Amino acid sequence: AAWTVARDGWLEFEAAANVTLDVPLTAGAKMLHDFRPGWTTERPISSNPPSWFVSPRRSFAEGVCWITFFVTMTLFLAYKGPGLRPLDLPRSGPRRVTFVDRLIGYSLIVSIVVVFWYKIVTKTMVYMLQPCHIVTMMLIYVCFCTDRRRASIVYAFFVHMNVGTLLALGFPDTSDYWRRNILPEFTIFNFFFLHYMLLIVPLWYEYQGTLHFRKGPYALFVGWMSLVFLHWVVLFPASIVFERNLNYMLSPPKGPLLLLGGRWFKTMQCLVTFPMLIIPGIIFPILIFFLKAIITSLSGVASTLRAPGGASSKAA
Q1: Which of 38, 153, 165, 302 is deepest in the core (most CB within 10 A)?
Q2: What share of the chain is helix, strand, coil (3-state, %, to 5)?
């Protein structure tokens, strides 16, 4: 019943807005349609080719509203609002880059170079703008950054923007690798290697205690702003300009997003992302607790076995 009331209310609002803003919406729709006149209105079977699954009129309205909102909020937070102060970031100072940091960093570089090579060969370089590739570059920077504050800032944004890794591993889409048939086994292995690294490395930093997941409503809001800003201000225009369905900003994949969101899937995706960002805040402490417990137990067992008169001596 609540869903029906909300849906009916939204449809009434949409109808009123269409009448009131008819002139600018019609002009914007014509501009987009004339820019890409050959696009079909049907949702493609795969993520591409691009289409006007969401009509040019609705795409223009959503784009103007969301881009205006996110740009305005970003400028307000940066110049009039609290900025990054509520995140309780450490002061600038030297940060020790360990052997493990370098090992992780170089492993990520090799993996992202493989991705880069694949995009060049397939002429899909624009897909390097995908969130998983952006957060990979952020994590590489963190691995080699020697300033404690700068590393903490980038890491704080990385953790919140990295929520897509859970979706990529939960619902992996490797069809493009098989379809293009360019070393599919190797490229698929690299896909999973990269995403598992994006999942595991933050746990390592949390366990180390050198970098921390920033908690609280403000950190959640800033993370959400960063992620959806990337989608609407960068990926949505780039999808139209380069004729690629970047991170499903033109048409949705099969699943809940299509069934529940329909033609409003982009706005729904934008709103649903916010509660999704709570997931790292729940999962991270639990995983860190078990990780520390396991390592402590193993260390205790190892110390017992090494100690004089330990288990091995008693057995003898």
Answers
A1: 165
A2: 75, 0, 25
